[in-house]
Design goal:
This protein is α+β, with helices and mostly antiparallel strands. The chain is built from four helices and twelve strands; from the N terminus they run E-H-E-E-E-H-H-E-H-E-E-E-E-E-E-E. The strands form four sheets. The chain has a six-stranded antiparallel β-sheet with strand order 5-6-7-12-9-10. It has a two-stranded parallel ribbon with strand order 1-2. Strands 3-4 form a two-stranded antiparallel sheet.
Length: about 200
């Protein structure tokens, strides 16, 4: 996602270390965009946490024990600038509102082995095109997630699988499955769709 992202900051499904571990300067606008997009993705992962060793490194505070080690830069959610903080703060609230839904997913994973995150073909195996999509996933049975993977990207194509109707939680628009559409993705939004009118509190009302 550009020069501001650390080398290990690719969006790999299932990665719960938001922002990568090594690298990334909280004051770099490029990394600020990266961390926002990463948080958006992380909301819809089973485990959701910020973790990492940011730049620039700080001088050791001592000469013995752990004090000999340099410390990373600030890495709290408010460390990435005001715009990023406001967006991340809203995402924390989304995650909290989805707690009952996520709890249900984790119980099902425990009892039945059903993966909380799954490729489209898991739920839509009769849709041949769903087997070809590798940059979207379902988070549980009701939320289709289409992460933003490139720096500066403000829209992206999204495939809506056959066999369901899909609604955009931000706009309220509904779409029939079995088609690809272009979806707006301003910095504050990750493209999402809810299946068959699922009533989930993505947007605070």
């Amino acid at each position: 996602m550009g020069k501001g992202c650390p080398a290990n900051s690719c969006f790999v499904y299932g990665n719960r270390r938001l922002g990568g571990f090594h690298g990334g300067n909280p004051e770099d606008p490029s990394f600020q965009e990266c961390i926002i997009r990463w948080f958006q993705y992380g909301v819809f992962c089973p485990v959701f946490r910020l973790h990492g060793d940011r730049l620039p490194s700080q001088k050791p505070i001592g000469t013995t024990g752990g004090g000999q080690c340099p410390s990373g830069a600030a890495n709290e959610v408010w460390s990435y600038g005001e715009e990023a903080y406001e967006i991340i703060k809203d995402l924390l609230h989304v995650r909290e509102r989805l707690r009952p839904y996520i709890t249900g997913l984790m119980k099902e994973a425990h009892v039945k082995g059903t993966p909380p995150m799954r490729p489209l073909f898991y739920d839509f195996h009769e849709d041949e095109h769903a087997w070809e999509v590798d940059d979207q996933y379902m988070f549980g049975p009701d939320i289709l997630v289409a992460p933003i993977l490139k720096e500066g990207e403000r829209s992206r194509p999204v495939y809506l699988p056959k066999g369901a109707d899909w609604s955009n939680p931000y706009s309220g628009q509904s779409f029939e499955g079995g088609q690809q559409i272009t979806v707006d993705a301003p910095l504050k939004q990750i493209p999402l769709f809810l299946k068959n009118g699922a009533d989930l509190p993505i947007v605070h009302r």
